[in-house]
Amino acid sequence: EVQLVESGGGLVQPGGSLRLSCAASGFTFSSYWMSWVRQAPGKGLEWVANIKQDGSEKYYVDSVKGRFTISRDNAKNSLYLQMNSLRAEDTAVYYCARDFGDIVGLRYYYYGMDVWGQGTTVTVSS
Amino acid sequence: DIQMTQSPSSVSASVGDRVTITCRASQGISSWLAWYQQKPGKAPKLLIYAASSLQSGVPSRFSGSGSGTDFTLTISSLQPEDFATYYCQQANSFPPYTFGQGTKLEIK
Predict the structure, then answer these.
(1) In this structure, are residues A78 and A12 in contact, taking their beta carbons and an 8 Å threshold?
(2) For residues B74 and B84, what is the distance between their CA atoms, to the nearest angstrom?
(3) Cβ pair B43:A46 closer than 8 A
(4) pLDDT tens for residues A42-64?
(5) A59: chain B residues, CB-CB within 8 Å
(6) Which of A18, A43, A104, B92 is least enclosed, having the fewest CB within 10 Å?
(7) pLDDT tens digit string along B23-58?
(8) Are A67 and A82 in contact (CB under 8 A)?
(9) Residue A113 confidence (pLDDT) above 90
(10) Which tens digits make up the pLDDT trace of B52-103?
(11) Residue A4 pLDDT exceeds 90
């Protein structure tokens, strides 16, 4: 069964740090771009970051640049999100997701995210 | 960044009804649009990609159309399990891959 399982969420004070993990199973993890998406309480979805198969390319939404770092360990089939200098507005459920796309010639075409974890909750509060 | 605007923000409908949700991009995105369904307390589920391609396992009552800046998600005959919140997402340019604000589909 294709599965993503997040862990590492919790309560942290403003300015603190947290590291989220996402364990993948049931598919060849090293063949996919992977993303983190978050959802603040009662709000919509926000794409946070993604990372290329070999970790050579990483992209972030402006609001987390310089504070969050996405990484992966293909040997462990795991995705990570290191979150530093946390703010109250980072409070959300964080989902890891598998990017769904296709390679035509030398170009990668992104279609969306086809596999999602159940989410892990991050609360930033004093 | 490309802004995505969905309408309506919420809609009430009955089982068996046909429902259409609209998504508008702030600039042309060709057919690079995905639709997701999210139920309370659950992760989103991919329904449609490339504006009109049905994701594997998704019932055929769901369909998508549009290109450029205007897109629609149509549910041809609402079933009880379809009451949820629906999001569009542009897949044309990043970062970031932006989502619409969501449309909540409620039972009338």
Answers:
(1) no
(2) 14
(3) no
(4) 999 999 999 999 999 999 999 99
(5) 94-96
(6) A104
(7) 999 999 999 999 999 999 999 999 999 999 999 999
(8) no
(9) yes
(10) 999 999 999 999 999 999 999 999 999 999 999 999 999 998 889 999 999 9
(11) yes
In this prediction, residues A112-116 reach a mean pLDDT of 97
Are the beta carbons of A116 and B100 separated by less than 8 Å?
no
- Per DSSP, helices labelled H in chain B are none
- Residue A91: what pLDDT? 98
Whether the CB of B104 is below 8 Å from some CB of chain A: the reply is: no
By Cβ distance, the residue of A45, A59, A118 closest to B94 is: A59
Query: What residues in A contact B94, CB-CB < 8 Å?
Result: 47, 50, 59, 110
The candidate with the shortest Cα–Cα distance to B63, out of B101, B19, B29, B5, is: B19
* Token pair recorded at residue A54: 């070999």
pLDDT attached to residue A108: 84
Per the structure block, which two tokens stand in for B75? 């549910």
Of B43, B91, B101, the CB nearest to A44: B101
Give the whole-angstrom CA distance, residue B12 versus residue B35. 19
Contact of A110 with chain B, judged by CB distance below 8 Å, is answered with: yes
The Cα–Cα gap between B20 and A115 comes to: 25
Q: Identify the burial level of A67 via C-beta atoms within 10 angstroms of its C-beta, where 0-12 means exposed, 13-18 middle and 19 or more buried.
A: middle
Q: What are phi and psi of B44, to 5 degrees?
A: -65, 155
Closest CA to A117 of A46, A36, A39: A36
Chain A residues in contact with B45 (beta carbon < 8 A): 116
